[in-house]
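Hi, here's the filled form for the chain we discussed.

Project: internal
Contact: R.S.
Residues: 104
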Amino acid sequence: MPPIRVFGNWLFNCITYVLFGTWTTDSQSGLRAFSKNAAKKINIKTNRMEVSSEIIKEIGRNKLKFKEVPIKAIYTDYSMMKGQSNLNAFNITFKLFFKRLLGR
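And the returned structure, exactly as it came back:
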């Protein structure tokens, strides 16, 4: 993982923790698995990249069991070219704080 992504991932882990009170080592990983019960309780209102943090919020709000399983992210030149812009992190952060302030 490129150093800028390592830092960005850590920063989003901290932001997610401050906003929602649940620590995770990779809050922005798109890989998630849920029990049928958990899937019924989780209420997602976003439709962009902030959904990863919203899932963490919903886990805490519903007092669901949470377990991390290590994965290895593989970054190729192609995936870096197709992936999210580092500047998009500011947009995602703004949306998370704004929705938190509005209680959504």
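Let me know if anything looks off before we file it.
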